[in-house]
């Protein structure tokens, strides 16, 4: 019988500011069976799709993405904040509540022969995930699949990805706050 992964996620009220109910996945990854099952479920849902690489968004997407890449037997591509990758990079801006930020990927790792699964711990409004998909597509890679441990479904991020032709897989639904 599958584990109740939702029960392994700790909810912390008023973090990082009053009115926010923070969904803390550290309690899930600290549980060996829960962490393993999370990675295995995501990998199993994407077997047979021709995935050649898993891309993980800094920082918690690295945790789950690397495990999924190992489980699928494919390479892992880090999507990092601006200035964190050595060598030539491609960047993609995305809007924040009060400004703009940039994520980057190595410019020479992906091309049109690659099919990438985007992985992150959580999707809320979808801004970072949409920027990551756009960035991956700019490399020429096929980026039509994304997986998240948590979907804060009422914030609409997964729907925005679907509108861009991305199939979205998630393990757990929570209301967003």
Summarize the structure in words.
The protein is 29% helix and 36% strand. The protein is of the alpha/beta class and 177 residues long. The protein has one domain (49-174): 3-Layer(aba) Sandwich (Rossmann fold), CATH 3.40.50. Strands 5-6-4-3-7-8-9 form a seven-stranded mixed sheet, with helices on both faces. Strands 1-2 form a two-stranded antiparallel ribbon. A hairpin with a 7-residue loop joins strand 1 (10-13) and strand 2. Helix 2 (32-46) crosses helix 3.
CATH fold node name: Rossmann fold
Strand order of the largest sheet: 5-6-4-3-7-8-9
Q: What's the pLDDT, averaged over the residues?
A: 96
Largest sheet: 7 strands, mixed
Secondary-structure element sequence? EEHHEHEEEEHEHE
Helicity range = 25-40%
In percent, how much strand structure appears in the residues?
Answer: 35-45%
Please write the CATH class name: Alpha Beta
Main traits of this protein?
29% helix; Rossmann fold; 177 residues; two-stranded antiparallel sheet; 5 helices; 7-stranded mixed β-sheet; alpha/beta
């Amino acid at each position: 019988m599958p584990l109740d992964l939702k029960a392994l996620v700790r909810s912390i009220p008023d973090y990082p500011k009053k009115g926010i109910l923070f969904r803390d996945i550290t309690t899930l990854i600290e549980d060996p069976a829960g962490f393993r099952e999370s990675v295995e479920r995501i990998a199993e849902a994407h077997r047979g799709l021709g995935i050649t690489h898993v891309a993980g968004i800094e920082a918690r997407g690295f945790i789950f993405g690397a495990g999924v890449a190992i489980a699928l037997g494919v390479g892992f591509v880090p999507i990092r904040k601006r200035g964190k990758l050595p060598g030539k990079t491609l960047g993609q801006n995305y809007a924040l509540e009060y400004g703009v930020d940039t994520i980057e990927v190595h410019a020479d790792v992906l091309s049109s022969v690659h099919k990438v699964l985007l992985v992150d711990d959580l999707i809320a409004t979808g801004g970072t995930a949409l920027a990551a998909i756009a960035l991956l597509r700019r490399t020429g890679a096929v980026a039509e699949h994304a997986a998240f441990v948590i979907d804060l479904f009422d914030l609409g991020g997964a729907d925005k990805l679907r509108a861009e032709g991305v199939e979205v897989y998630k393990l757990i639904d929570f209301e967003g706050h």
